[in-house]
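User: Study the fold:
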Amino acid sequence: MKDLTTDRKLKVSTRVARLISPDGSLEEQRQVASGQFQLCNNEELLALFVLAHRGAVEVRDLAITTLKGIAPYRLVPLLCEGEIHPQVLDFVARQRHDDASVLVLLLDNPGLAHQTLLTVASQCTVDVLSYLVDRHARCCVEGLREAIEANPAAEGHWLTRFDELSALPDEKVDNEADDWDEEIEEAGQTAYQQIMVMGVAEKVKAALTGDKEWRKLLIRESNKLVCAAVLKNPRVSDGEVLAVVNNKSSNEELIRIVTMNREWMKNYTIKQALVVHPRTPPALALRYMSILSERDLKNLSKSREISQVIASSARRMLNAKLRQR
């Protein structure tokens, strides 16, 4: 675990150094801060970090807003494979504190600073906390237990699990991701076989970047961090989303992600499926019902497989439409 106050210098390319220099063009800095300048992922992340801390006043907030909007899959090669300065990792952690997929990848990065880990531990959601405890409880990180205890989302059983894991002798530590690189290179392995030996962070990475075969397998994972990451994959199709909302066992996080996506919510069939999904918030289900056709409302009003609230509302809406004729 690295010290955030490390003396290691932040290295940037000559091109980035020119763009972010105090003597550089303010217009170019605005373009960089807004994500309009053509930079590779690593260069863009470093440039946003520097501009957010040392740039002109008018570009600092813009740089932070741009970082918050970067799709998680674009951060995968940086957080999983790139060597990033601990202060940049801390910057990402603070600005993406509500993005579970990004936090899981950060927690698996060997360059993560001690203070950054403590900050995440004290503020993260329950799903991230579960991974954090399993990943770091055995590492004897000073202050980690106290940080978890200070987290409003942490219930007593998380501290109990932390104590149990931290008390395990070294020989019983099972790092489930250690052999991943060797396993994935074995010839003839199917995606399913590879998933069986992957740790949570590796599954999240695969969910964010994998093809349809990987997405089909990982969306079924019981771990909410993994299946939620699938819906953040840029190649997810409307058909895959429809399969999620048609599956009555899909968890509330998957439903929440679907309802937050404007493009998916333009699809009539997806809205129709959300109306009858048991984990769709009732207020949203009623809102989506307002766009349904008379035929679909009629079917809902007679259905015995949905909640009484939805069926009754369908009857009222159907009667209202008939009276307006």
